[in-house]
Amino acid sequence: MSRGVAMISGANRGIGAAVAIRLAADGWKVSLGVRGGRMPDWAADLPTDSVLACAYDATTGQDEAQWVAQTRARFGPIGCIVANAGIMVAKSVIEAEDAEVAAMMEVNAFAPRRLVRAAWDDLRATGRGRVIIVASLSGKRVKSALSGSYSMSKFAAVALAHGIRHAGFDDGIRATAVCPGFVATDMGLSLSGRPAEAMTSPEDLARVVSMLVDLPNEASVAEFSVNCQAEEFF
């Protein structure tokens, strides 16, 4: 029995792929937002009637409504959004150019807002719409100068999740900012000297997302922080 329809951005690999695999196993129909619209190789093992790949580029500002329409036409109303697409420019707030900061804000905060807005009527109609904004612990603290510009965009992503939660709470929409530290993805491995086995795995983050979207309306989680190392607050 289908659990509903979930849209996952940045689903080519890494966290997005792991979330899609987990939600599909849970019984969700999954719509993958991927550049070029090509079905990822990892999705070959998923039932063809449960997965859809759609062209989605978070940088354009124009793809969200079309992706929602394609998903609805294939599977029906959308019940879950997992906004996972993200980019990082490792520069301080002084070194980063305006265009670099704007690009991070566009992908990490503005695009998720547009995507949720495009699916808003569907999310409300379910009475238990779920939104996961994959943010970062960099959206909770600034750990270094080189993460400062990225943190600006991820602080905005965390605020977006809170804003969505308030805007839709009376209609049963529950939004959560999932804030991981280093994750064993291409991005995480390039930034950390830790071996992959000492970092949070994408599959464990997928387990977190699965749990969050399954919780009843009476167990709303505004933020969920995940870390592979000890920090003062996280």
Largest sheet: 7 strands, parallel
Output the structural class: alpha/beta
Counted beta strands: 7
Task: Strand order, main sheet: write it out.
Answer: 3-2-1-4-5-6-7
Number of helices, counting only DSSP H or I runs of 4 residues or more: 7
Shape designation: globular
Question: Helix share of residues?
Answer: 25-40%
Low-confidence stretches: none
What share of residues are in beta strands?
A: 15-25%
Helix-strand topology string: EHEEHEHHEHEHHE
The chain-level mean pLDDT equals: 94
Q: Rg, please?
A: 17 Å
Query: Terminal Cα separation, in Å?
Result: 38 Å
Which features would summarize this protein structure in a list?
40% helix; 234 residues; alpha/beta
Short description:
With 234 residues, this protein is an alpha/beta fold. It has helices at 14-26, 64-75, 98-118, 120-126, 148-168, 186-191, 202-214; strands at residues 4-9, 28-34, 51-55, 80-83, 130-134, 174-180, 223-226. It has a 7-stranded parallel beta sheet, with helices on both faces.
Task: Please provide a written account of the structure.
By secondary structure, the protein is an alpha/beta fold. It is built from seven helices and seven strands, in the order βαββαβααβαβααβ. It has helices at 14-26, 64-75, 98-118, 120-126, 148-168, 186-191, 202-214, and strands at 4-9, 28-34, 51-55, 80-83, 130-134, 174-180, 223-226. Strands 3-2-1-4-5-6-7 form a seven-stranded parallel sheet, sandwiched between helices. Helix 1 crosses helix 7 and helix 3 packs parallel to helix 5. The longest helix has 21 residues, at 98-118. It is globular.
